[in-house]
Amino acid sequence: MQNIRKILLGGDIGTGEDSLLLRLMKEIPLPLAGVRTLMYQDRIDPDTGGAEIYLYPITASPDSYPDSVENFVGSCTGRNRKINQDVFRNLGVSLLSDIPEDAAVIIDEIGFFEEDVTEYTDRIFSLLDDPAHPVLAVAKTRYECPFLTKIKTYPGTSFYQVTQENREDLFSSLSEIVRTWN
């Protein structure tokens, strides 16, 4: 179990997979690179009625990173979706490229919004194939699409389903692993 270098976390809404990711990030003894998405429940998109979602560099504080069309991913309420694919194509690919040699890659979160943006999805698969960089990511499990199915079963990755009952045990076992990443 100690040779695991590609960890994918998944879970239902409210199980704490994002919190687990944030806790595990603090245990990684390497510089971090990658992406983070945040959904703002207090910012409702008038077109869909859904909360707005933004993409950020993993190392940036959302409070200090200006929200604009360049990092506005979109919004969603079931069937009503607005997706800004250019954010994945431009900012997303940029943040997942030119990763420093000594960095761990964080991808929060992999979902269905980006499934048709091959530049971005190919970059994710490239990082999962790259033996030089450890990867810690969250993958949506609530929705199914071919891209997400492929991610969760990708060779060389270890997928962990997070539940409220197992998240502390997962933190204990996975923190031991990520602390050994070099």
Structure description:
This protein is of the alpha/beta class and 182 residues long. It has a single domain, classed as 3-Layer(aba) Sandwich (Rossmann fold). The chain is 29% helix and 29% strand. The chain is built from five helices and eight strands; from the N terminus they run βαββββαβαβαβα. An eight-stranded mixed sheet has the order 5-4-3-2-6-7-1-8, sandwiched between helices. The mean pLDDT is 93.
Instruction: Output the radius of gyration.
Output: 16 Å
| CATH architecture tag | 3-Layer(aba) Sandwich
Number of helices: 5
Mean pLDDT: 93
Q: What would you call the shape?
A: globular
Helix content: 25-40%
Sequence of secondary-structure elements: EHEEEEHEHEHEH
Overall SS class: alpha/beta
Predict the CATH topology: Rossmann fold
Number of DSSP E strands: 8
Widest beta sheet: strand line-up: 5-4-3-2-6-7-1-8
**Beta-strand content:** 25-35%
CATH class equals: Alpha Beta
Query: Segments where pLDDT lies below 50 for 5+ residues?
Result: none
